[in-house]
Amino acid sequence: MSHTIAIAPLTAEAFAPYGDVIEASGAPDMMINQGMCGRFHDRASLDLNDEEGRTGISVFKATARTLPYALDLMERHPLGSQAFVPMTADPFLVIVASDLNGRPHEPQAFLTDPGQGVNYHRGTWHGVLTPLHEPGLFAVIDRIGPGENLEEHWFEEPIEITRTGK
Question: Given its phi and psi angles, is residue 14 left (phi above 0), alpha (psi -120 to 50 degrees) or beta?
Fold first, then answer.
């Protein structure tokens, strides 16, 4: 493998250039349902780049992966943001990269805490859905509609993602 990337904890600050961390952190923004439910309001900005698409909710069931993980593919969605909300309390691997001349540049890897989800900004390079535990169930909120909303980049040599860098 060409090089190794160490996994960092997922924080809103570190992830901000790529999207939003979806979590119930801090005090609720408001209490609802007769004071029995805390609402953590507006934790992600959904972004559709056209009038032909609509926001949809899908359920993905992905095979659990193991570490170290060989990153060989990244993708991005130019027409809309894409949010992944786990349907279990298991952490998952989040891989993102900036763009350099239409290709992923300087990938970074994060490990979610239980209960965290992510929303990738429109056009952000990201790894495929990478749960580390079965059953790998996620609610996915993204653009549904016509048009080319998927770009893929395959690396010539996989990049090793591990808990500790080399």
Answer: alpha
Beta strands in 17-163 (DSSP E): 19-22, 30-32, 37-39, 54-61, 69-76, 82-86, 92-100, 103-111, 117-120, 125-127, 130-131, 137-144, 151-162
Return the C-alpha torsion angle 60, 64, 66, 68, nearest 10: 0
pLDDT band for 50, please (50, 70, 90 cuts): confident
Which option is the CATH number for 4-162: 2.60.120.480, 2.60.40.10, 1.10.569.10, 3.40.50.720?
Answer: 2.60.120.480
pTM: 0.91
* Spatial contact of 111 and 94, defined as CB atoms under 8 Å apart: yes
Q: What is the pLDDT of residues 116-141, one digit of tens each?
A: 999 999 999 999 999 999 999 999 99
Contact 44, 83 (CB under 8 A): yes
